[in-house]
Design brief:
505 residues, single chain, 5-stranded antiparallel β-sheet, 15 strands, 22 helices, 56% helix, alpha+beta, 8-stranded mixed β-sheet, Glucose Oxidase, domain 1
Length: 505
């Protein structure tokens, strides 16, 4: 392999069963979208993953797609529509894994089901990865267009307001649907003073047992909410949220003196004001058809980019049952099952024995990538050697006293740093800490809810940290590049998200 791959992003908890499917998306682009195929890869080091792309083929794909959207914004609308349609279709298919008794399925039926899952996932990644082509290095060309267009046609103050208005989604995320539903549930069940006292005084893991004993209707309402939304923060490997997590969310609202009725009304009024202001600004700007389409596409893009991941999250949640059954048949753990290649999954389902040592090595170090020859998977030292050829875009740290990034949500606060990248890191988080992460994911949302501010190495306006900070209305600085390298647990910092600066104190 030539030294042509460059590092573009980092993440966590992405197993081989996902990585092998992900890298295959490019092969579908010529047929599905008449797009040139890019070559990509994922390096995994014990659950820490690094995304790489071939600079040449990725750049050609980026330029091709951006030019299409610039000349015809309906192209982006079509991609978002397909992402929605295909995501829903995929979820309906994988839901069968939870609904049916997989222990009765033959190996052939299991293999057929898995192959269709892999096909639907690859197709969903194919449409989903088109969106990051708009958002390269944390900056969307749509955002750049909107900023420049607003500055040309409005006063400085009006342009800043227009940018904020048109970059705010007009529709809920799945996570916000969950929040709204939980606030409604909270309003209902906490109207009883005794139930409210239980939530205020008892530990979260004790509450469901007490409710089932004394308030079974309330317990059932919480369980129904859990059954509906347990997947929302699952990502690739979970764990799925339990009733305890949602009880903790309610307790957090209580601790912060959130009135559920008032909060729901605030959200409704805020959305109404947003829609009204959008209409007023569009009338004031009076853009031509293409410019209007690009302006309106910004908020749709901000909404759709994380949503396409949510559909995949829900399917991986459904498929946990499948991989547990795969592990049962091969007498191996869920982690081993998730560390198998597609070829190995087929072998297991045909009754062949798989070397667990090989699966351990695949979990620890693997590198899935595509070339002209198709998808390839390297393991162990070979994976290290091949990945070492990828060019890192690490930023040299010259001033560690002040880090600069982009403002995702304005505000200014101080607190102690806690580095949170994985769900298992969340136990060290305390209310008022500054959450610092390479790139946040839905799986660490409980810790984000405790944060006084959020700081990330990666991301831009449309990254997960930016979206959640706007929902929580807490200061957020993204795209610092080096925050997790410069800062450590316990450091006292000031986050000035008005200026996009994080200072050590």
């Amino acid at each position: 392999m030539q030294q042509r791959f460059i590092v573009v992003a980092r993440d966590f908890h992405s197993p081989l069963i996902r990585n092998e499917v992900w890298v295959a998306f490019g092969r579908t682009w010529p047929e599905l979208f008449d797009m040139p195929e890019p070559y990509v890869g994922i390096s995994s080091q014990e659950d820490s993953i690094t995304y790489v792309v071939d600079g040449k083929t990725w750049s050609v794909a980026k330029d091709t797609f951006q030019q299409r959207v610039q000349s015809n914004p309906a192209v982006l609308t079509d991609v978002i529509g397909r992402s929605e349609e295909w995501g829903q279709e995929m979820n309906l298919f994988t839901e069968k894994a939870k609904e049916e008794n997989l222990t009765t399925w033959s190996g052939d039926k299991m293999w057929e089901f898995y192959q269709e899952f892999a096909r639907l996932q690859t197709r969903q990644y194919a449409v989903g990865i088109l969106l990051p082509l708009i958002d390269i290095a944390g900056v969307s060309f749509l955002e750049d267009f909107l900023r420049k267009y607003s500055q040309q046609h409005l006063t400085s103050e009006e342009a800043s307001e227009a940018f904020a208005v048109f970059t705010t989604p007009t529709k809920n995320s799945f996570a916000l649907d969950q929040e709204d539903a939980l606030l409604g549930l909270m309003r209902t069940i906490l109207s009883d003073p005794t139930v409210r006292r239980i939530f205020a005084e008892r530990k979260a893991n004790e509450i469901m047992a007490l409710l089932y004993k004394n308030y079974p209707e309330v317990a059932e309402q919480i369980q129904q909410h859990t059954d509906k939304y347990s997947w929302v923060y699952y990502v690739y490997v979970g764990p799925a949220f339990t009733s305890v997590h949602f009880i903790q969310f309610i307790q957090d609202y209580l601790k912060k003196n959130v009135d559920p009725s008032a909060e729901l009304e605030r959200r409704r009024s805020e959305r109404e004001r947003l829609l009204q202001k959008r209409a007023e600004l569009l009338e004031q700007l009076n853009p031509n058809a293409i410019d209007k389409g690009l302006i309106e596409a910004v908020s749709e893009f901000v909404w759709a980019k994380p949503r396409r991941k949510d559909y995949q999250s829900k399917s991986y949640y459904h498929m946990e049952v499948f991989f547990k059954e795969l592990g049962r048949r091969a007498q191996m753990s869920l982690r081993h099952a998730r560390s198998a290649t597609q070829k190995q999954i087929g072998q297991i389902l045909q009754g062949e024995a798989i070397n667990r040592t090989a699966l351990d090595e695949q979990y620890k170090r693997h590198y899935a990538f595509t070339t002209e020859a198709g998808t390839q998977i390297a393991v162990g030292s070979e994976a290290d050697e091949l990945f070492a050829l990828a060019k890192s875009e690490d930023v040299e740290v010259t001033d560690t006293s002040a880090l600069r990034g982009s403002t995702a949500y304005a505000g200014k606060t101080q607190g102690k740093v806690k580095i949170i990248n994985r769900p298992e890191d969340m136990q060290k988080m305390e209310d008022g800490d500054i959450l610092v992460s390479v790139a946040t994911t839905p799986s660490i949302v409980p810790a984000m809810k405790q944060a006084a501010a959020i700081v990330s190495d990666e991301g831009g306006l449309t990254c997960h940290a930016a979206i959640v900070s706007r929902e929580l209305r807490i200061p957020c600085v993204v795209g610092t590049k080096v925050a997790t390298r410069v800062l450590k647990d316990g450091d006292l910092v000031e986050v000035d998200a008005e200026k996009g600066i994080v200072r050590k104190l």
